[in-house]
Amino acid sequence: MDKMGELRRTHYAEDTVKVPFGETVTVAGFVSRTRDLGNLIFTDLRDNTGVLQLAFDQDTDPEVFRKAEQLKSETVIMAKSVLRDRSSKNKDIPTGDIELFVTDLRILNAPTEMLPFEIRDEVPVRDELSLKYRYLELRKPSMTRNLVMRHKIVKCTRDYFDSQHFLEIETPMLIKSTPEGARDYIVPSRVQPGHFYALPQSPQIYKQILMVAGYDRYMQIVRCFRDEDLRADRQPEFTQIDLEMSFADVDDVIAVNEGFLKKLFHDILGKDIQTPFRRMTWNDAMAKYGSDKPDLRFGLEITDLSETVKGCGFGVFASTVENGGSVCAINAEGLAEKLTRKEIDKLVEFVKTYKAKGIAFTRINADGTSSSSYEKFLSEDEAKAVREKMEAEAGDVILIIAGDRMETLTALGALRCQIARNFGLIEKGRFELLWVTDFPLFEYSEEEDRWVAMHHPFTAPRDEDMDKIVSDPGSCYAKAYDIVINGTEAGGGSIRISNPNVQQQMFEALGFTDESARSRFGFLMDAYKYGAPPHGGLAYGLDRLVMLLLELDTIRDVIAFPKVQNAGEPMSGCPDFVDQKQLEELHIKLDLDEE
Amino acid sequence: MDKMGELRRTHYAEDTVKVPFGETVTVAGFVSRTRDLGNLIFTDLRDNTGVLQLAFDQDTDPEVFRKAEQLKSETVIMAKSVLRDRSSKNKDIPTGDIELFVTDLRILNAPTEMLPFEIRDEVPVRDELSLKYRYLELRKPSMTRNLVMRHKIVKCTRDYFDSQHFLEIETPMLIKSTPEGARDYIVPSRVQPGHFYALPQSPQIYKQILMVAGYDRYMQIVRCFRDEDLRADRQPEFTQIDLEMSFADVDDVIAVNEGFLKKLFHDILGKDIQTPFRRMTWNDAMAKYGSDKPDLRFGLEITDLSETVKGCGFGVFASTVENGGSVCAINAEGLAEKLTRKEIDKLVEFVKTYKAKGIAFTRINADGTSSSSYEKFLSEDEAKAVREKMEAEAGDVILIIAGDRMETLTALGALRCQIARNFGLIEKGRFELLWVTDFPLFEYSEEEDRWVAMHHPFTAPRDEDMDKIVSDPGSCYAKAYDIVINGTEAGGGSIRISNPNVQQQMFEALGFTDESARSRFGFLMDAYKYGAPPHGGLAYGLDRLVMLLLELDTIRDVIAFPKVQNAGEPMSGCPDFVDQKQLEELHIKLDLDEE
């Protein structure tokens, strides 16, 4: 192998396009491919900004040429070269007009083993391999682009919040376990036998304490941990953009975050997003979109037909309404040809996973004829009333679900997304941002047989609901808000309770005894006794936000070293066994079932 | 309590000085103190930028005045006010020339309990209280200043490395345990019974893998964990500025970091630091300062007298040299009057904690008379030779230690710092930056009876030592460097081994079997088989760097929520017990000694 000696890179690939022909540059990187045509060699050099063509020909120094003959994919090289015009241009890459005539070539390293797969975006690789050899997967231009974009998003985020007087303050990672919601990861203490730290699910308590401490505006990009079973877009460790601000109410938090997202879309994607964003209450979102995170890139809004079909001739509809349920529908406009009987059958199977019993439909063909699963049971007027309510015209399909109101709305919410995906109603490159507000303060947990906090126990009720926390929890709404981008929750937050008495009522409504509230949150309750400014905040899932901005399908592609389904990481093989001695020092032993 | 209503802060305290008299501003914060003179009330309002005087007088709206009479320390208020000239100026604060005539006062919150201590920097508080009520301690202007400065330092750091093409890339926190050095914190896996994650002591392995993956320049400000017994400047969790760069040798890493520190000192302290910094090899640092992190803010360099006293009349000196030991000394210039016999006795006790047997001294008084503990055993020529070698003159004191070379140097190194501290030789506001280079590659561990890596096992040897790794480890020096500021190691790093064969030799020299090397570092060794660019990096202790820049004595003062001696955090009371159910889910049980 050669040494770099005094040679140093002068330019990254992307920067060479600004250099005039005839100038000397030194570039460094990996050989992505090389074509040896005998007396002509073309080698593509890849660095983390792009690809460049190196050319070796009859004018090349013979020693350099001999070295060039040895180049293979993924050889690590440095090349001092003269920039020149390229004879056969490549319009697909930014550097496609130029090539480098190499005067000094250093081979610095080279693979000693066959690569398990090619370093090309076009060549699909099994997950198993790509995760085990993550360092090779990460060499691919698409992965490099994702992580470079993530860097830029993070930089843009910090710059914005700094400009808005937010202070980056670090909160501890080894904290007290206060499980309310997801499972904590815990860490045994060596120094205090039998005691454990928890890893934070979020810095929630600490950021509130920073407001009590007068820090006014806090931000942190921070790792959080949740020991849950993995879903596609969840990781055991994930990163949060975490914010809190004092002397703020809902509109203040929303305004500062609209400023942030406007800048982010502008700086990262060159898109101009209009502010203020749309806002929708949780009740409206559920009624119209069957979801607390509606995707507004397409229509298919839900219409409540309960009043229309009350007492109609179709028993399923009539009895549902009579028993307090709802009959709701969407109009799949213009999809009559695509929504064949077979497709509708598939959708019936789909909505069954959302507890719906089935779908009643009317397809109105382009020629005005129609087929329907229920109109035969209705009078002509009744059928017409439904069509009119649904504003259904030739080419449309009415899809109706009947049952418990929330279940029906949720099923239709899922159905509209499924139809949009299946039939290509979602435009690439379109972004719809929405605030969902006024969430219920509580939801009833059948499992625990008590009210639980929909967000967390520190969320403030709306001013008008302040007096009903204990007496009528189910009717209280929260000063809570989620930012929804293209049907995904990118972040959420709330105004917090800053009055210790209100906090006490909240714990009471949640069924905490004084003792259990104190043992978990005593220090937070104490802190609030010394006077806190009104405050609230918000947290974004950074991984998800990056994924949304880059329009990717999985957060794995925006995380350098993601975990997989079993919460392990295949490259390093973690988690792993540890020495018995380590366990002894920590005063724990294994407790494995003999199965 | 009042509500904010539509009122919002328009200015922070520090920004009001730019506002013309007569203009209306709204400010918000805590009452730091209030003086009620009957028909005149002066109230100091504190926000995280400073303090402002609010004035209430005979012209104040009576309702506002009545509210002002209720204000107490730490009441949370918002005040709409007209800015005006202040009659009795306060030269101690930036806003001392102005006061605010309040037209609308909102009392938003107030302590419901007596404060355990006053929120004033001047009033000392017991550690116990200040840590338990950390949220109150954090309200103090000094703590606010420290955390605001930390924010600025972090911002400056990220901006610099971004401008130098470093990408911020996040590495995992739940990793594989590879203990070599300090103890890992470990985290039991629920999904994989009997398996554990470790929390990273540093992202070392991942940042090297990012270089293998072609990311070229990486940076991260990242939490790290070490389960060690706490010392004054150590925390179980601490924050690192972590860097790695490709196509780089020692001078490249040093140059990019000198650029960083120059900018940091300029932007944060307004100080112009000259580059390049001084450099010193580890051997020279040990010989001249008895430390691998010399404090260059004062002299007291070490002189080796072994040659001078060889065979002299004083048995202790002569036999030490004869037995292969060293006789070394410092000249405490001009300290003859201060270094009384009593003071020297204290220093003798001090050096004994560093294994030195004692101190031999000569004090040369201003009048030319002298007293010495050893000169009576020397001939006149021998005594003169020592004085000449030490360049000792009237007013100086020679302090000599004899013994094993390294122990002697280390004791003298500690002694010079102790003398500098005790006798005020260290100038406030002075910064001396130094690179210590060429550390030994290995050090011999008597405890483990083998060579261990002085930095870590991935550190590259100097080019000239490449062939001696296995055959003569003790004579190999490393491409390693520490940045030392005022006698404290602010950061350190090295060029890494990028050749798998050299890495293999390194593991061999460290006495790892192939199997144990593979089980710990197999994935890293595999990664290097696919060709890595030459690379190296550096990591700063951020907490320590902030402490150094702000000239504070303890890192606790630059961490919002520090841990204490028993690795606990008194405010929240962590670590704590967890539910038996949590342990069962994690397949572990407690293993407590019955003592």
Give a description of the structure.
- The structure is a homodimer of 595-residue chains.
- Chain A has 16 helices and 23 strands.
- With 595 residues, chain A is of the alpha+beta class.
- Among the domains of chain A are: 97 residues, Beta Barrel (OB fold (Dihydrolipoamide Acetyltransferase, E2P)); 129 residues, GAD-like domain (Gyrase A, domain 2, 2-Layer Sandwich), CATH 3.30.1360.30.
- In chain A, strands 6-9-10-22-21-20-17-11 form an eight-stranded mixed beta sheet, with helices on both faces.
- In chain A, helix 4 packs across helix 6 and helix 13 runs antiparallel to helix 14.
- The longest helix of chain A is centred in the first third of the chain and has 23 residues.
- Chain A is globular and about 95 Å long.
- The mean pLDDT of chain A is 95.
- At the A-B interface, strand 1, helix 3, helix 4, strand 6 and strand 7 of A face strand 1, helix 3, helix 4, strand 6 and strand 7 of B.
- Strand 23 of chain A pairs antiparallel with strand 23 of chain B.
